[in-house]
Amino acid sequence: MKKFYKVSLAAMTLLTLVACGPKRRPRTQPSTAQSEVTDGKNSKKESSGHEYYQTVLERYQAYSRAIEAGDGAGLETKLKEIDSQSDEYAYAMYLQTLGSKPNLSYFYTDLDKDGRDELLIGNSQTVSAIYYLKGQQPELLHTAFVASSGGSRSGFQIFEDGSVIYASFSSLQPEVDLIHYKFQKGKLETVNKIQIKNGDGQKPEKALGITAKELDQAKIGWKELETGKKATSQANNSGQQTSSFQVRVAVSDLRIRKEASIKGEEVGLIPQGVYTITETVTADGYTWGKLQSGQGWIALEFTTRVEGGNASTVKGLSAEDQEDIHSVVENGYSLMYSRLVKPTFILDLSNDHSGIYSYTEGMFLDYFNTYTPGTYQLADVIKKLEAQETSESIQSMTTDQLIQLAKERKQGWIYSSKDKKFFEFVPGGRGGAGPEVVIPSADEWVVENDTVTVTTRVKTSSQPFERYVLKRSKKDYSGGEHKTRFYVISKENVWNGK
Question: Which of 90, 214, 254, 442 is the most exposed place for a label (fewest CB within 10 A)?
Answer without folding.
Answer: 214
